[in-house]
Amino acid sequence: HKSMLNKSSRAPGGQKLCSSSAENKLGRAVPRIPFSRPGAAVLGSRSLPAVEGGKQFSRRPSSLTRPVSAAATAQQQGTNRRRAALQEARMSKDLQAAGSLRTQLTNLFRQAINKAYPDLTDEPVVAACNNAKFGDYQCNNAMQLFAKLKGKEGAPKAPRDVANALVANLPPNELLSETSLAGPGFINIRLSNEFLSKRVSEILRLGLQPPYSPDLSSKKCVVDFSSPNVAKEMHVGHLRSTIIGDTICRTLELCGAQVLRLNHIGDWGTQFGMLIQHMSELSPSADGSASGDESISDLMELYRAAKKRFDDDEGFKQRAREAVTALQSGDEKSLKMWRAICAASRKEFAAIYERLGVKVEERGESFYNPMLKGVVEELKEKGCAELSDGAICVFVEGQSIPLIVQKSDGGFGYASTDMAALKHRLEVEKADWIIYVTDAGQAQHFDLVFSAAKKAGWIGTPESKAKIDHVGFGLVLGEDGKKFKTRSGDVVRLVELLDEAKARCTATIRARSEETGETVDEASLDHAASAMGYGAVKYADLKSHRMTNYKFSFDSMLDLKGNTAVYLLYAHARIAGIARKADKDIDALAASTPVVVAHQKEVDLALHLSRFPEAMEDMLQELAPNRLTDYLYELSERFNAFYTDCKVLGSEEEGSRLQLVEATARIMRQCFSLLGLIPLYRI
User: Fold this and answer.
1) 599-637: b or e for each residue (b if 16 or more CB lie within 10 Å)?
2) HSE (CB half, 13 Å, CA atoms) of 586?
3) Which of 99, 191, 586, 682 could be cross-linked to 103 through a Cys-Cys bond (beta carbons 3.0 to 4.6 Å apart)?
4) Considering the entire predicted model, what is its pTM?
5) Tens digit of each residue's pLDDT (9 = 90 or more) over 330-368
């Protein structure tokens, strides 16, 4: 079992993609989709998580209002109007079965199936049309239902007869303007303009809380992400876990879940004995107190030197092992030095997280140390673990290697810690959805951990219905298509990437201001450059499907054209420019002026705005942030088409079209918030 003893740390970036599936889903007693039964959601009193600056939708001024200082009264009036609208909406029949458009259509066709064919229990299959000329959505159940009915008395003669029966049995509703059949029995669906107009109005009046955000069946979620190693700098490999995990957390939080954001840092293990011994020999008087701070100012250099000595000097290797024993035995001097090392690393991690706008709660490997012996004993008592070649192992069907929960020398490794962490999250945190975000190379390890937990009865039983997912991701590559490294062959430090991105954006904004003759103060320049630079790095990663490898290129991610954060931030700033020219109180406008979509580009924009809940559903179903970036980029494209063909300011339709503009701005800002981007109103 030596191969398992050499398992790498939680930190990503050092492993190859595993050919086995990186999506481990065990212990599920409910369907894969993590939402309540369609149609069950009603508008609740839960407030919307902050989009920007810790403010709720109902408490922030619209981008079409006057400056805050001049519009405080209007803002409060708008808040009161939205509260009244929200209260009224709770009693509205239209919202009792609300949710995503797909959910509402599914509900309608479920009723049609039940009425037309009471003996069948098939769930409707509703999806957006790939080609808009045929319709907005399509129901594809007719062929499947026909196959089940074939041969029975009075059975329909063809799938199209089934489709016609479903259409005939649709209940009265405001959603549909027309249906049509295509091919052997596909039902094409066109939504009514009146319904889309109402939907846009409700986005402004009610915000994006349930039922317009998905209502989760999982209410307590634990997301394990980022997880750097103490005494090592965060590098580009940590980028993906950190921002993918953050986006998942933000989306869960918007949907009303209680989310515990855990940073499972590598703060324990044999490497600390090596490092402590090296530091002690460099400075025999060092005891981990404040006076020893200088000796750990460059932990990476200390770690490299210690590692070289460990590999080359047998005497040092033996002393390092003795230092590990002293640390694990609670030697006070060793513990002081360990705490000092952790504190120095923690300070650096915190600086990175602050720049990225990521919040995490540290709960490292050391937290679970007191639990390890008990976990191993429980596994042995349940007959899940057995002695093999001197080690305590859990053998899992279908796996060529076991999960080693205690090494032959009596020590514990990553497997032991991960089992203890999972048990704690299930039994103490009471999580009903646990998500691990690590590189795809660790798929097999987590498959073993989850399978061992199932074997022990922790998950997959009637008493334990918790869902568990491993969210794997691919590698970050250089522009040469090889693993992203410095010229010297070292991994690329994350702080250097962020510095470079911000510096490039600073130069671009300065050059632009010189061209236009505009002056920009340093504070505004720093804010804009940070938002654009850090946002560009995040977005370039998130827009790729997480399982793919992607090339890291500053030139591509900072491009002003195409699907980049910089382009989208500029697009939002242009919308804010329309806002400033309008100088309208959008909340008063939404309360007094109906939205009317008549022009085809208005319809296209309203339809896409209304589909935002589906983007969140798809993202959470697949745990793939690129579903949000795809939605956001298409939204900007549809807005551009609308603004090109539909005059806003000074038109007869100004009141209605300004609401479409503001709804676009609010949805864009919500997307930015989920992706961890900061919106800009002027560039």
Assistant:
1) eebbbbbbbbbbbbbbbbbbbbebbbbbbbbbbbbebbe
2) 34
3) 99
4) 0.84
5) 899 999 999 989 998 999 999 999 999 999 999 999 999
